[in-house]
Amino acid sequence: AARSPGYSGRHAPVGEREESPVSGRIWRRALVTGGAGFVGSHLCERLLEAGTDVVCLDNLCTGAYTNIAALERRPGFRFVRADATDTRAIRTLPGRFDLVLHLACPASPADYLRLPLETLDAGSTGTRNALERARADGARFLLTSTSEVYGDPLEHPQRETYWGNVNPVGPRSVYDESKRFAEALVTAHRAVHGTDTAIVRIFNTYGPRMRSGDGRAVPTFISQALAGAPLTVAGDGSQTRSLCYVDDTVDGLLALVASDETGPVNIGGEDEITMLELARRIVELTGSRSRIRFVGRPVDDPGRRRPDTRLARERLGWSPRVDWTEGLRHTVGWFARAAAA
Ligand code: NAD
């Protein structure tokens, strides 16, 4: 399968520009909001490797400077500590961008439950600010939306045409509705101002640089297994997720920006696994003696989740390439090294 049209990423020597065979556009300078987070830091790295200069704007509310510390030594990278909801901070960033990638938003349940109002602000004011900057600069804009817009889905697998099943006053609503509002904002901005926008709906992504305490299943299970503690599986562990390794997700994001598609486009893994299978596989991969402990299931936790990725395959030539055992092995290795450091 083709991989990231126009963006061979890590294989492109720094400093050389690649032209996209899809759109013929060349990205010289990108603004990445939320660039010090898990997905954002991998994205910044890939852009730099492909020869795009990067300004990473992040308030570090859930991200970490250590994620991008190594990038600061590279030419073409700049870190700005600021809030995406600060209109002036975004408007006055010097220079011109031809790509604005808006990732800034708390993303793990533990984070958005701790930061509910900030999460709504990131989706509303933060998205508006990033859109205005893209419009002012004539840049291509990407919103990283989420599979959570489908809520607890009544359709399976989820296609982009499905409208979702979200409880607007449930505990997860701050995140789900923030992203649904952000999608509406992006759509309106394109209609009113002709802004060159794209929306990606990312499904569960995992990999190095997730935080062990962020409450998501993969880092939680790996940290528990490495510590020899019981793996806490919610409910009876029969709920499913489809995991996507972060390199594949970043490929999908870059393939979408290199295309002329507006989205929304699903990007995610297609191998659906139960949380119990995931926990058992992590115990195996870590060689841990940990047991499984079943704990209460969070309110509104979706029962099943798997993307229909036909659109990404057909329009972007994208498909996930890293199988989950291989991806988990890399991730376990990273967590083990981080714990030992
Ligand atoms: P993350 O928490 O690691 O990264 C989010 C980053 O945004 C952090 O560095 C945080 O400090 C920053 N941030 C938050 N609010 C901000 C604000 N107001 N101003 C400036 N910076 C701010 O999460 P992630 O997993 O890397 O997610 C990145 C994006 O991808 C998010 O928009 C998220 O909704 C989306 N997404 C991620 C997944 C996934 O599985 N990781 C799935 C679906 C969607």
TrEMBL record:
Cofactor(s) needed: NAD(+)
Gene3D superfamilies xrefs: NAD(P)-binding Rossmann-like Domain (3.40.50.720)
Region (Disordered): 1-19
InterPro entries: Epimerase_deHydtase, NAD(P)-bd_dom_sf, UXS-like
Alphabetical keyword list: Decarboxylase, Lyase, NAD
NAD-dependent epimerase/dehydratase domain: residues covered: 30-268
Top-rank taxon, per record: Bacteria
A Pfam family it matches: Epimerase
Protein name: SDR family oxidoreductase
